[in-house]
Amino acid sequence: MASKADTIRLFSFDTPPMRAFHLTWMAFFTCFFAWFACAPLMPVIKGEFGLSMAQIANINIAAVSVTILVRLIIGPMCDRFGPRKTYTGLLLAGALPVFGVAFTQSYESFLFFRLCIGAIGASFVITQYHTSVMFAPNVVGTANAAAAGWGNTGGGAAQALMPLLLSALLMLGVSESLGWRLAMMVPGVLMLVMAAIYWHFTQDCPEGNYAELRAQGIAIEGGKKGGWASFCAASRNYRVWLLFITYGACFGVEIFIHNIAAVYYVDHFGLSLKSAGMAAASFGLLALFARALGGWLSDKAALRGGLNTRASVLFVMMLGEGLGLLWFAHANSVTLAVCAMLTFGLFTHMACGATYALVPFIDRKALGGVAGIIGAGGNAGAVLAGFLMKSLGDVQQTLGLLGIAVTVSALCAIAVRFSAAHQASEQISMHNITA
């Protein structure tokens, strides 16, 4: 019977784990690109619809709020139906509001479709679930972080490419109003293509697909509990809620920055749309390596010190993120702001990777519920950041208060602790693999 992969062979597509690894990050990249495709075009959309800062704040909140609910649901769905069916369905359904945005004619309709697009953000949970059931304990942190990190670069790619795509359309003689709408069609088409690829070339776990395995009476580690049972089991674990907070403080900040960075650089520093897009893109593109680095460091630390050491690594990264964010909030020039953004962005992405390097070890029998609840924490953090910005009416003040909140939330990471028996069990599993 096939088993979990204990190595990551980057240039291989021969095995189910490596096909899942590559196709999960590609699917997540596509979803993230579509999720944030609107963000770098907001200065143009703001002008067309005459949006106020309060309305922009509402749009940013809408973009991430519905993801909380969908992430809570999607994790247990992975346990029940398997990640292959779940991901394919999300890609197909998520493409519809992406196309819908292109046809909006008012603030209200734009807000509605932006809200619906937020469901695409649940793709992260499926990505982490799929790699968690495909890879062994000695490399699962690196696999989770690398797949999520490379997928996350879809946000940075959207910041850089969407303004360029709009510029190309304008050069062809298309009006600005039609141009941004045509540009928004591209990520929708990519999602439909990715759905077909994912369906045909992946399977749920190393042994096969959940439906066939259950029909044969074969036990499934990741999907023993499905639906409500998985959610309930996860919700009773205090570690899940501590990581819910830490993930809100790292990934929540990440997607908040994706939503406001371009507008911030245009309004605060007077950059052009293309220059602001490139500056904002540099933050997202850190995910190419930084998130994977956080997972890798967590894996290496666990080899020496166990699961509690993974939590300590997360604490250090959260602290670095908070202090870097405070620097960014008080930067008074474009150069300093970009340097500060890259610094705190590095720690932010590493913290995200280190968080999900812990997820597979919380409760293996309710993996979907654990991944879903913690993933929802990221969007809860983004929603709270959005409401904070709306109430203050000032992005710079919002960034400063977020820096303080992130620094304090690092304490939740150090509070995540595992029993000696739990750690011993995981150490035996890991050393059996690495021996």
TrEMBL record:
- What is a GO molecular function of this protein? nitrate transmembrane transporter activity
**Biological-process GO terms, alphabetical:** nitrate assimilation
Classify the protein's membrane topology as the record does: Multi-pass membrane protein
Cell location: Membrane
Q: Where are the transmembrane segments?
A: 20-42, 54-74, 86-104, 110-129, 150-172, 178-199, 240-266, 278-297, 309-329, 335-359, 366-389, 401-420
Task: Write out the entry's keywords from A to Z.
Answer: Membrane, Nitrate assimilation, Transmembrane, Transmembrane helix
Record's InterPro entries?
Answer: MFS (IPR011701), MFS_dom (IPR020846), MFS_trans_sf (IPR036259), NO3_transporter (IPR044772)
Query: What residues does the Major facilitator superfamily (MFS) profile domain cover?
Result: 20-424
Q: Which GO cellular component terms are attached? A: membrane
Q: Which family does it belong to?
A: Belongs to the major facilitator superfamily. Nitrate/nitrite porter (TC 2.A.1.8) family.
What protein name does the entry list? MFS transporter
Q: Give the organism, scientific name.
A: Undibacterium oligocarboniphilum
